[in-house]
């Protein structure tokens, strides 16, 4: 038997719409011919199968929310950065199209590993942070990033944990092309063949288009937490270094060609605060509900679901429909109707002097009947 095994298996020729884009891109390449050669357009056609938006929005939101909650518990912080242009991650990964890509294993989206984030911040501190003198720089490198084991000196962990940078919205991918003009020189040069035209860096080499996968647009959440809570006072400085590194150094591959530069999203912190406020309201509501009896909780939820109706009228109508069968439950609901009517100035137990209040009086008597039926009044 010769040739690729997938030619004998029932494997789809194109990526299914609901497939994990990263798993498909990395593991299901099926463009080889029987003689293990590739058509000129095979690589670009494979890349084009995963173009456009990738990942599932709900999964991304849930994942990012959990990560932010974890980082917050660790006294850390998160910030969102938006790509200025295209961005490449994991280009050096092995792949049949020659240029690989880094996919999150469960989310199916491009991401930047925490180790890469740490290296990016370290590069800024080492090479570009002009505000530090050599002594301060050395102390900061040791404090923030730790040290490796050397001889009798034990390894020291850095003061900060750098999390993977994950998009909180579906990123969009694109098939980009580079055209190296001296491909033969890169392949043949330096082999000791001075008379071979292919071994010379010259302008007669024809450009050969090379396709690769890139992120067209993305917003990434970067999270950093102190290893010990008392180091949280340095977080602002760490994020400042990260912002400078993303703006001036860029992340990922081909930064010299303009890829990988990102800018801080100033609206993210406001969104975070709004989400915290909303979560706090939900938590407070749940705490109030948990203190109520089952029937009291049911009343609250029913009124929320039918908030377009007058609450006392809605509950009274449900009593008329025998929504509740137990007398104890009917009493609680009727008492709630009584309180709502009193608050609205519609509780009139005595015969009214004006006909316009007659309807309110009749409803009052009806509610009183429900209350007396339980013999608690």
Describe the SSE topology.
Layout: H1 21-27, H2 42-48, E1 52-53, H3 57-73, E2 77-83, H4 114-127, H5 134-145, E3 146-147, E4 156-157, E5 160-162, E6 166-167, E7 172-178, H6 183-188, E8 210-217, E9 219-226, H7 235-248, E10 262-264, H8 268-290, H9 294-305, H10 311-320, H11 327-343, H12 358-373
Antiparallel strand pairs: 1-7, 2-9, 2-10, 3-4, 5-9, 6-9, 7-8
Helix pairs in contact: 4-5, 4-7, 10-11, 11-12
Describe this structure as you would to a colleague.
The structure is a single chain. With 377 residues, this protein is α+β, with helices and mostly antiparallel strands. It has helices spanning 21-27, 42-48, 57-73, 114-127, 134-145, 183-188, 235-248, 268-290, 294-305, 311-320, 327-343, 358-373; strands at residues 52-53, 77-83, 146-147, 156-157, 160-162, 166-167, 172-178, 210-217, 219-226, 262-264. It has 2 domains: 5-130 and 157-176 and 210-264, no CATH class; 294-373, no CATH class. It has 12 helices and 10 strands. Strands 2, 5, 6, 9 and 10 form a 5-stranded antiparallel beta sheet that branches. The chain has a 3-stranded antiparallel beta sheet with strand order 1-7-8, with helices on one face. It has a two-stranded antiparallel ribbon with strand order 3-4. It is elongated. The mean pLDDT is 89.
